[in-house]
Amino acid sequence: MKQTPGIHHITAIVGHPQENVDFYSKVLGLRLVKKTVNFDDPKTYHLYFGNEKAQPGSLVTFFPWPDSEHGRIGGGQVGLTTYAVPAGSLDFWEDRLLNKEIPFNKISRFGETYLQFEDPHGLKLELVEREEGPLNSWSNDGVHPDVAIKGFGGTILYSTEPEETIKTLTGTLGLRQTHENEQFIRLKATGDIGNLIDVQKEAQPLGQIGVGTVHHIAWRAQNEADHKDWHTYVSALDQQVTEIKDRHYFKSLYFRENGHILFEIASDTPGFTIDEEADHLGESLKLPEHYEAKREELEKTLIPLNH
C-alpha cells in the first residue's frame, strides 16, 4: 500500500482577486508565492499562498471569479479548511480576528480548541494550535514566525457517502483512523503538516461549485517518479483517474472518489522556484510557455493586483 504524507494544496473559488489577496496576506499573514493563470482558463488568475518557502502542505490556491454566483457548500467538497499555528499562539489570533472585526466561534473537537471563521467570500476556515511541523519564517503585517500559520492542519470533508470516502482515504491514500465521536471520524496521514482529516459521519446533500466553495483537495507525492507510481497504483484500484497533467510547478492526476469529492495527487517537485527566485516569489505574472504569446492580451484582461 502506498501512503501520502498528507495535503499538498487545496484549491478554492473566490470572488474579487484583490479581496482574496488582502485577506490571505494581510489578515492571515500568508505569502503570495505565485501569481499565474488557470492553465485551463487563462483569462482567470490562479493565485497561490503559502509559507515563505512555498512548501507543499502550506499551499492554498484560488481561482477568482469576480462576477460569478456563490456556490453551496455541501457533499462532495472540503467543508472546512484547518490551518495549524504554533502552540501558544491562539490568543494572538483571537485578538487579531477581533481587531480585524472578523466574527469567529471558539469550539472544541477531539480535545483541541479551534477558532472558526469565514473569509470574505464565504470559505469556512479554522485555526488550531499544533506542536508538529516547522515554523513559517515569513513575517507579514504584524504576523511573525512565532505565531504565523505553519500550513494546513487538515480539513473537514463533507461526503455524500462517508463510508466510501473513508475507504478511499484508508485503502487508496494510506491514512489510518485514529479517533471517532458522534459527528466525525478522524484519519491521519504520515506527515507532520496537513495530516489530520476529519470526515463528517452524516452524509451531506451534494454541494454546488461556485464562489465560496473548495474545488478540490490535492494529496502529496514525493517527486515526479513517485507520482508516476501513484498513477499506476490508483489506476489499478479501478479509480477513474485522469492522465498525468503538467502544472509546471508539479505534476497532477485527478479522480473523484465515491463520496463525490474531487481528489488530486500532486508531486512535491519541481516546486515554485522553477521560474522565480525564492526572494521574489509572487511578484510578477508567470505564464506557461504556451501562453507567453498572449501575455499582452491576458495582462489587459486580468484585474490589476496590489500586493
Automatic annotation (TrEMBL):
One of its GO terms (molecular function) is dioxygenase activity. Keywords: Dioxygenase, Oxidoreductase. CDD domains: PcpA_C_like, PcpA_N_like. InterPro entries: Extradiol_RC_dioxygenase, Glyas_Bleomycin-R_OHBP_Dase, Glyas_Fos-R_dOase_dom, VOC_core. Residues 6-130, 151-268 form the VOC domain. PANTHER family: RING-CLEAVING DIOXYGENASE MHQE-RELATED (PTHR36110). This is Glyoxalase family protein. The lineage of its organism: Bacteria, Bacillati, Bacillota, Bacilli, Lactobacillales.
